[in-house]
Design brief:
Length: 81
């Protein structure tokens, strides 16, 4: 399955990622690569907690994370990976 990653730059310069498909799945990092990896881990944990609570199936884990980077909302310009 494919999910979307949306990234924003915080005031302190860190990059935060979220996915619209899973409310509460987030990731962050000093670079875009770190934020990507952290978001993937956030999605994995979202599924793990859901399983522990009896709400889902791990088979829905993403095999691809499509990225949406909206530069117009970021302070400090483009993100360098």
């Amino acid at each position: 399955m494919t999910y979307h990653g949306v990234y924003d730059r915080a005031v302190d310069g860190t990059i935060w990622g979220r996915t619209p498909e899973f409310s509460g799945a987030y990731g962050s990092g000093a670079t875009l690569d770190e934020a990507r990896a952290s978001l993937r881990e956030g999605i994995r944990l979202w599924f793990e907690v859901g399983l522990e609570l009896g709400h889902g199936d791990v088979t829905a884990m993403p095999d691809e994370l499509v990225e949406i980077v909206d530069l117009s909302e970021m302070q400090g310009g483009a993100i360098a990976s």
